[in-house]
Amino acid sequence: MTPCPVTETTYIFQHIPKTGGTSLRLHFESHLQPYTEVVHLSETGEANALAAGFKPFAERPDNERRRAKVIIGHDVNVHTKDLVQPNKTIQVTVLREPVSWIVSRYNQEMRKHDRAGQPIPNFWQWYELAPNARSQVDWILLRHRGADTYIDAKSDDRLTLALEELRNFDHVWDLDHIQAQSSDLMITLKAGELKRRENVTGRQHRRFLNAHDLESDRLKHVMAVDIELFRSVQFK
C-alpha cells in the first residue's frame, strides 16, 4: 500500500449507534485507504487495525495521525481533534428520528440476545433496565462531551446542554436526508455519492419490534427530551 500524504483537513464523525455510521464508514473505506485515511475509532476498529499491523491511533506518530482524512466511530469525543493537530477539523454527527431510533436500538440489542441464546425481554423491560442509555441526548453528553454528571440533570438541562454541544459541530445531519446533506462533503473528499441508506448490520435479520407495537403516548413521554432535541436542532 502506497503511504498517503499528510492532509490539511480531517473530518471527524461522532457515530451515535443506529444512525447510519456503519454505512458511512464502509462508503469511505471503499473510496479512501482504510486504517490510514479512514480511521475507525472504536474497540472493534482498533482491534481490526491491530490485526492489520497498525498501532492504536492515539499511539501513532503525529505525521501518521495527520494522514487521516476521516475519523469515525463510537469512541470519537471532544478530544479526538487534538490527535490530528494542527490539521483543520470538521466535526460531523447524524441524528435519527427518536421513535425510529429507539425501536432500531431495541432490535439491535435483541438480536445480540438471540444469538447468545439469552431471554428476550419486552421493550419496556429492556428500556427500564437502563433508561439513561436509551437516548441520543445522553449519548451526546456521555460519549462525546464525556460529562457523565449531566445524566442526572433535569430534563430541561439535558436538552439545553445537548443543543449547546451540537452547536459545536460543523455539520449535523438527519439520517432520513443524509444523501443530500452529505453531497458537498463527499465531493470535497472525492468519495463518490453516498448510496441509498440500507440497514447494513441488521439487513435480513429478525425484527423483534415495530413502532406501531408500542403505546404511542407512553413512548413519547419517555422520549420527550430526544423528540424535542430533534425538533429544535438546526440541521446543517
The CATH architecture term is 3-Layer(aba) Sandwich
* Average predicted confidence as pLDDT: 89
**CATH homologous superfamily placement:** P-loop containing nucleotide triphosphate hydrolases
What name is given to the CATH topology?
Rossmann fold
Number of domains: 1
Identify the CATH class.
Alpha Beta
Alpha-beta classification: alpha/beta
Q: So what's the overall shape?
A: globular
Enumerate the strands of the largest sheet in spatial order, edge to edge or round the barrel.
Answer: 2-3-1-4-5
Q: Quick one: biggest sheet?
A: 5 strands, parallel
Distance between the termini: 36 Å
Q: What portion of the residues fall into strands of 2 or more residues?
A: 5-15%
Low-confidence stretches: none
Q: How many distinct helices?
A: 10
Radius of gyration: 18 Å
Helix proportion range: 40-55%
> How would you spell out the order of helices and strands?
EHEHHEEHHHHEHHH
Total strand segments: 5
Question: How would you describe this structure to a colleague?
Answer:
- The protein is an alpha/beta fold and 236 residues long.
- It has one domain: 3-Layer(aba) Sandwich (Rossmann fold), CATH 3.40.50.300.
- Helix content is 42%, strand content 11%.
- The protein has 10 helices and 5 strands.
- Strands 2-3-1-4-5 form a 5-stranded parallel beta sheet.
- Helix 6 (136-144) crosses helix 7 (155-166) and helix 7 runs parallel beside helix 10.
- The protein is globular, with a radius of gyration of 18 Å.
